[in-house]
Amino acid sequence: MIRRSLTLFAGLFVLILATGWLMGLPFTSSRLVEAAAYSLIALGLNIQWGYGGLFNFGIMGFLMLGGFAVTFISYPVNPQFWGSDGPWMLGRALIAFAAGALLVIGARKSDRLGIRGGWKTFVTVLAWFVAYCIYRSQLDPAAAYIESAAGGGWIGGLGAHPVLGWLFGGVLAAVIAFIVGKIALGLRTDYLAIATIGISEIIRALIKNMDWLTRGTLTVSPIPWPTPLPQDYQATGSDITSSLLLARGGYLLLALVVLGICLWLISRAYAGPWGRMMRAIRDNHIAAASMGKNVTARQLEIFVFGSVLMGIGGAMLVSFTQIFDPSSYQPINHTFLIWVMIIVGGAGNNWGAVFGAVLIWLVWVISEPLSKVIFDFVSYWSTNTGWGAIPEIESRSAQMRVFVLGLVITIALRFAPKGLIPEVVRRDA
Amino acid sequence: MTEFIFFINQVVIAGAVLGCIYALGAIGITLIFGILRFAHFAHSELMTSGAFFAFLLAMLFTSWGISTPIPTGFVVLPIAMVLSAIFALGIDKGFYAPLRKRGARPVILLIASIGVTLMVQGLIRLFFGAGSYSFFETETKDVFRIDTSFLGSTRPLVITEPQLLMIVVTVISVLALHFFLTRSRLGKAMRAMADNADLAQVSGINTTLVVRVTWVVAGALACMAGTMLALDVTLKPDLAFNIIIPIFAAAIVGGLGQAYGAIAGGLLIGFAESLAVFNWTMVLRPLNAVLPEWLQVPPQLALVPTEYKLTVAFVILVVVLLVRPTGIFKGASS
After folding, report:
1. Looking at residues A46-67, what average pLDDT do you find?
2. Chain A contact for B319, CB < 8 A?
3. Would you say residue A426 lies in a domain?
4. What is the domain count for chain A?
5. ipTM of the prediction
6. Which residue from B minimizes the CA distance to A371?
7. Which domain holds residue A19?
8. Helix residue ranges per DSSP H, chain B
């Protein structure tokens, strides 16, 4: 087993070297940083699906939350917003939200006043509606004011260190995951998958359209780096290539440190009683419940833990690319891609998750230039035989990535259903 | 009366059109879930590829010079449905049947269906690019404007020819499906298998045949839904990928495994979406004359802003999953 993993990782290393040789160091170095962030996200999914057997198809939503968090924390302060009436209006919207929440909670407890059955349902629905109206009546003018020139356009950031933003990304993802988990974890797998997709789409719609908060489709850039930028190295006299490599190397180091800490913590937890309990719940939750384990609470716990890693990973990705563009988030790139990583790498094995993440990320980024080369070759051949060239090779080869991803997952499910580095089940005698 | 006609145009017709498409897609999903017990994500790609089959056939017909009074998209629909059914059977044989034979869990089949989604999506984009196409490049889209001045309305009732045909075709196919499921031997076998697969097998039902028929029906209906959606809006590679979750919502709201539930759920989601973004000011504006100054109707009074239209279905989905997870018609539970 160990030998197999080592061989696979050695193969991966050779693949990285080959990519570096073919595509150039600047390309490969930034892909490696992204691969580190994706490894963290894949570890998050590995906790949820590999340990807990929870079907989370809403990864995109958590990545967006992380991206928003790091934007909000690390982007420079927008003095125009803080100097206007905006904060006061937002405060009122918050009070309206709290009032609405109180109203709903009150309605849910209305059976204490003797309102029961159908009446209670009616009162609850009415309370939701009234709360929604109160909130909208305060938020809409506030949003319109902030988005106008007088309000500063959007609320801006807090200007803090990006690593704080990563942490906040984790916290925000945890809070949302707690709410989502409370709602959806009682459902069985298929329903849970659809519910989480639905929730991630709601998150995407909100972040995309709340221009006052996230600037929406106008995008936010440049978001600062936690490590020195290439420009900083250039200012001290390095040439362009070496400053690029130094800066990305620094970022990669930081990302690897975060990844290493997470991997170490998770592996320890997984090897301990907590991990055994989680596997027991995954394999037979009825038996686990009869042994006195609180299945619902443990599943909620694991869902929140996994989402924290997704939030941090999403934040790392955004601060690396320096731009937060809500419309660039797609289910294929940000949910299904992670799933392919886990399925190919091996669910339930942390090293498998990391291996799958790096491998699939490289496959995903290489398949575009590779298919362009193939198309060019075929086009050259077909032109020579008189069939004419392939039109629009550029855009077509960009689309090949999706096909390759589907092909990889299909082959993996068919021939290596447990993944390349499968889960190791230790059986003590 | 003008306001009422406006309401019909904006809510009733738009909701019915959307509801028909959701319902047709949801029937396929719910049938596959009932028989094979997995959530078939690649249904969106069956819809999109069906629409592209119809588009290619329509181009072929146009190049042959065949023109009919009804839009070519509807003329070629039966042939495209046959092609789609064969395509669906092929997908099952190539991707799902081997996994089923191995005894894979439904969850693995779900992941496999995502793989199929990605592959088909990639192939469609490879051949057709990312641009959008229209069925109405060579022919005109007829728009009926029914004069309603006898009701005292200044606005006409507007419905396009594809929309009208779409509603008619959906009603016909739903009726046909109803008779198939309740009267024919095969349809009864399908319902029996959806109810209890093991019991169906011991009572001598040919389960392989039932699985095949399920794919044929699902593929044909998906093609119908996809083509009609493309006729109503435009044809693009992510045509149905974006609406697969509302379709799943429709299937779940109706109760997974319940064909009639899927129809009800589809219409419900369709109407809810168009009702939620409807601007009530248009209807309530006459009240401004009688209302006091401080209670005038604002210019925008929709329940949710238009950009959140798709989230309506998700919210309904989440609420239904919370309040009644088995759906309206008591589908397959936990």
Report:
1. 92
2. no
3. no
4. 2
5. 0.87
6. B126
7. 2-76+159-415
8. 2-7, 14-36, 43-64, 72-75, 77-91, 97-101, 106-128, 161-183, 185-195, 197-202, 207-232, 244-254, 259-276, 281-284, 309-323
